[in-house]
Amino acid sequence: MRSALKRFFSTLSPAAWMIAGLALASSAGMALIRVPPERGIQFWTFSEEHMAYYRKAVAEWNHLHPGKTVQVTLVSGNSLQQRMMSAFFSGTPLADVLEVERTMIGPAFSGPVDKVGFDDLTPRLRTAGLIGGINPPSFGPWTSRGHIFGIPHDVHPVLLAYRSDLVEAAGIDVSKIETWDDYFRALAPLMTDATGARRYLVNGWYTDPYTCEILLLESGGALFDRSERPTLNTPFNARFIAKLATWYVGPHRVAHSMDYFTASGHQFLVQGQLLAVMVPDWYVGMKLKSEIPTLAGKMKLMPLPAWEPGGRRTSAWGGSMLGIARSSKLQEADWDFAQFLYLSRENAENLFRNDGIVSPIRANWSDPVYEKPDPYFCGQRVGRIFISQATHVPWRTSSPYNDEALTAFDGCLIRVAEYAEGAGQYDPAALVPKAEQMLDAAQQEIVNEIGRNVFLSK
Amino acid sequence: MKSVRPHPSWAPWFFLSPFLLLFATFFAWPLLRAGALSLEQTFGPGVGVFIGLRNFTFILRDPLFWTALRNTVWYALGSLVVQMPVALALALMLNRPGLRGRGFLRLVFFSPCLIGLVFTAILFALIFDKQTGLINYSLHAIFHRWDPDFPWLDEHVMPSLILAALWLYAGFNMIYFLAALQNVPQEQAEAAAIDGAGAWGRFWHVTLPSIRPVAAFVVLLSVAGSVQLFELPYIIYLRSFGSGPDNRALTIVTYLYNTGFVTGDLGYASAIGWVLALLLVAVVVLHRWLSRGEEL
What we know:
The complex is a heterodimer of chains A (458) and B (296). With 458 residues, chain A is of the alpha/beta class.
């Protein structure tokens, strides 16, 4: 018996036995772990910042509605998108209610409209009278082929946050600034600091598609029309690219890249190398104030300077929605919860108080919470300033090809900026033909890509 | 009751069955399924429309595919040109007789490839950062004229990826070269030295021909690995799903992944996969042809 055991154990090395033992033990451990059963409505969100406030809201909901309780789970953005798309494609398990960000939703709209994994909320929104009550541009990213698939969470107007301590010390009155040309002219004396080091007047870089999109939307340009047809190669967009390229290269360069989400990026603002940054409400509420507290009392907000006199003075960046999975068996309860979370006045107040985000519901805009002076911005009424621009926020489409179009558009900007640098040509008018040539190719690329999609052409 | 005795002719099939089962499940069936899928446009695996060869004809005029192919080829060539000489130089250094700390140095050079691609990508995203990144910070400290905002990851995408891969794989390839160098016949090198050959002459006429089969194998491995580049650009440029500015980091596998698993067009992704497989076969055939007559 002993020798048989010895023979058996000698069939593998001690290390192999150890690996086999560990594999068995870990498998047994996994089998013994008890996963708590999912009860009630499952709600997934991607945002850690939203989560802090949702925990309280969900606790309150569960207290008020013991028959339809909610379990909220934080899932990282990429994972949420992967799990959502897997569920839509293959029916893998999914939450009943999902909060998703604008950049996650595109693929969900690339198939047949009746196969979109979210419930079409258009009839519910219409019945509840919400379509007229919500700021119209907020529906844009969640509307595909005329159907609204989510309740908008926000408006996300973009303003310019500038170093008021430096600008006002130089005697510059920003209230007289209307256009970007005015802005660059007025702040030109600040482009060199006391030590002779270079300063820049606004953030952005030609390889950054996000700032490119913010400025494109503000200018009145667009990647798609309302019918989701690509409109990359318009003369307007060509002039926009030619002009924007000169912000980044040449003797009149005014912009510097700033990573919005890293300490090294924030240092440009802190050290005064960068005098202003384009900020949506969520960035002010969830990032700027908490991650750069040293700038409290040194910053102020102003509307973005316009591209032309009388032009739009804001843009949009980001955006979330609350969608109900088509696969959910609790759709009525989901809808009640979604209304509670996104549409109640109390939660709109909390949304601004916790995350600095302005509610998309216009009736809420008279709430006193938006009138509160903010010491970080030298006592400015931040909520009111964002709301003053909310109705001017540009419309954004939900095309599943938005990311491709933006990358292609930004690629044109990159190549025009590189061409300008290489040829030493910094006159925007002279760069227009190059921009047109690049945009024609980009347009063709996106048209071909969309044309290949048999589901969209149906 | 009459017992059923297995016929002796079943025996080979019985012993082959584990392999055949695994081969059929994980190779033959997916291959056939990918072939069928490549003739469809899909929205995930559940919704598909037969479109014949349109996926393949679209590949021919798809600028994104050609961009991805061009980037992949650049990366493969760049990796070869930079990695192979560095790996060989490290191996030659470690092969010098009387070198002290050989084992430690071997571990140091080899250790990066124990780390894994995802971690390497995160590490290099920090190293190449503007201002605070190790490379810009160090270069600016040494050469004051160096711009601390040098945009490695914005405008020098392929050089940055090739440098990251160099750090990761040079030590791995070095091990192959070291093993080959240790098998170079010393008597030939000594004979060449007696005949008056210098160090360069001995390397060129004795060492290099001796390690040629191994070098050819390392080149093949490196090219095959480069064609499958995915994790490094995907993690570094996570926000753009690995495509980077102006799609300058987009590789064939990243494009395949995004097409199949982000947008759900498994049909077009399968077609890209088939083209990738054909490319790899072409590389292997070319390699076999170039290295004909040589054996490891």
